[in-house]
Specification:
Structural class of chain A: alpha+beta
CATH topology of the largest domain in chain A: Aminopeptidase
Number of domains of chain A: 2
Number of helices of chain A: 13
Oligomer: homodimer
CATH architecture of the largest domain in chain A: 3-Layer(aba) Sandwich
Amino acid sequence: MNQRLPPPESKRVVRDLRDLAALTSTPEGAQRVAWGPVWRKAREWFAQKVRTDLGLTAQRDPAGNVWTTLPGLSNRSVLIGSHLDSVPNGGWLDGCLGVVAGLEVLRRHAAAGTPPVTLHLVDWADEEGARFGRSLCGSAAATGALAPKRELAHLVDRHGVRLPDALAENGVELGSMLDARAFLKSQDGRAYLELHIEQGPVLESMKRPTGVVLGTVGVERHTLRFEGQASHSGATPIPLRRDAFLAAAEFALACRDIGLRYSGDTPRTRVVATCGVVKVEPGIVTAVPGVCEISLDLRALDAKVLARMLSAARRASEDAAKRNGARVSWSRLLGIEPRLFDRRLLDLCARAVREMSGDAPELPSGPLHDASELAAVMPTVMVFAQSSPGISHCKEEDTKVAHLDKSIRAFLRLAELTVDEVASLPATRRRAFRSGAASVEA
Amino acid sequence: MNQRLPPPESKRVVRDLRDLAALTSTPEGAQRVAWGPVWRKAREWFAQKVRTDLGLTAQRDPAGNVWTTLPGLSNRSVLIGSHLDSVPNGGWLDGCLGVVAGLEVLRRHAAAGTPPVTLHLVDWADEEGARFGRSLCGSAAATGALAPKRELAHLVDRHGVRLPDALAENGVELGSMLDARAFLKSQDGRAYLELHIEQGPVLESMKRPTGVVLGTVGVERHTLRFEGQASHSGATPIPLRRDAFLAAAEFALACRDIGLRYSGDTPRTRVVATCGVVKVEPGIVTAVPGVCEISLDLRALDAKVLARMLSAARRASEDAAKRNGARVSWSRLLGIEPRLFDRRLLDLCARAVREMSGDAPELPSGPLHDASELAAVMPTVMVFAQSSPGISHCKEEDTKVAHLDKSIRAFLRLAELTVDEVASLPATRRRAFRSGAASVEA
């Protein structure tokens, strides 16, 4: 029996976000760095809201994720999540938008009686990895993608504090973090929903307040080392040089061309290539660079396209090295597979977004999110709110209130549709949504 | 009355150079850093040679330059100079080749009786500037191009030693260094000659053992700052980026094209453009660079060509900035005018080099030398010995003995021709050679 819910409203969500920002920001931005005192203050504020508004008590899993559960007529559940933690000097919406909107989902469904399925709101711990460098910490622990001993045990922050000690200070034991996996499994989750600020300029450039996220892109991240021969800038004629920097410059420009060449016309088929780190040796004004290290970050939603881009970049690096009398070597920093969201949930999401904004633009997420981890274990989808300006991880991060309103309402509507959908699943089909991920072939 | 001299020989010079290298090098190379103990040891060794071989006592001017004077029938003099100091882990020939060959000039002329004019051999102090950063220190003091209080008083080495204290340790007072100017003037110098290793690959690429140096090139040295907008590598489509590094990469490649376009076919008309320092911000793998600082070093023997290259580079920087949605600003680090050597001495030099090697290839010097300073106050010329390999300021620096032989003999012959030329000047024409610098219009 579906609930009858009033039209979704965003006002309480925006007010709560403003309260949280006032409580946990300085003039430099949000300071809710995971495992620290301001983050704990944010979580206490949130637990108080849960108690006051819902009469519920939040629960922590062994990885430090905080679960708020609104029991339904069935144990089958819909999960809603995001993160209260921020980078230092971060924006007021990154992460907490999704958690606070999730609170509104629970308030809305609670006000209408008992929902047909159970609703879980999860505040994932340490999504940002801002202090110790490992992002998606809590959600990766819950989905089993994290190897705490190998990945976390050795991490130290810039003040010399060890991650295991910071965890212990927050009641989390490194050795039992993976018990969060059993905790997640026991919730019988059938769908995961997340609302997040885009953190990029795509929706703004499309003049759309909110959009449907197709998945998180795959990443190939490498460091290249071009080696030529350092020589005196005054004494070495250009044709006799082996300039490692010019080889890297040619490579970087070729990578931009690769990014443009492999991009389709839509956000779904758009790919990117970025050289963000550049170091030259000896790095003096009077020396032709003998060595240049440069990073490459390739992203695409389609794994095959990503592989083709990587091959093209390898060829470009070898061509650039050859033309400049240099050698090039590659070392891989990171490889992440594309995570495509669930086809059925994408349809529901498009419907909700269209109802609230008149259109349903689709785009992939360049950054990773907790949803990237959840997509590996259950049907998942995300809604993006427009960034304006299209930047994040800084105090200038923002979404206009009119756009925030539409995004939040679309998300509330998506939750409503998803609850009904999960409620209507036949009893035997435990993972009905796992029928297939969305295709990127447009 | 000209002296009758035997054919010039290089053997003693090469033997002395080997002795000096054995005395003042480690396995990592020469360690004769100015104002330090190994440099003082080199100078003591040299003073001992002067006493033993010539029966003369060297004299120090107020800037710490060491003068060895072989009196002639006239006070008119020919100056021969270079430097015994080296960079740390330097080559065995850079600098000391010219001083030791100069000693041979004096030995040769002394052995043949009293020369018609006076010969001065000068070991200039701190040509390299390796410890405190100000190169051509002693020669610039003697020619008046140095402003000790403004340029030297504040300098500190990496161990925290102040330059004035290092000078005092060597009997030099900062406040009276410029008295070296009066000392130089009182010597009635009519020509300055210097033999140096090329420190580049030009003679090697021409397969020539030795060459005539046309002058030292002019330098325009600048730092450029490209400012775009940092943004997330995953979230920002390529067409919406304002990538400061790609603007700088386009600029660097354009500067190479400028260097090739403004170069003529000969070493005389060859120009260079180098980007040796590259720094990006924020300099992280996942961020499109918002800022890129890049250095530009332009060199040409012709001041007009140098000015045209600079204009072309400015246009290229503005075009690159515009194409990438960035801005660019320039700040000048250094400007050095081309110093063209004396036309009459170039003729004598070409004659001497041709006599000893069968050819007289001409090339400019990209690096500066003490001769660059002397050229401002008296007729000057230099001889280069081939570098093989074409690198310097490292222990691999070398000249094959056969090439060293021809270079030294050419230099000894040049000194002989110059002594005769100065002796033949009419008494009234004090600065006969100042009639005009060489033209670079080939």
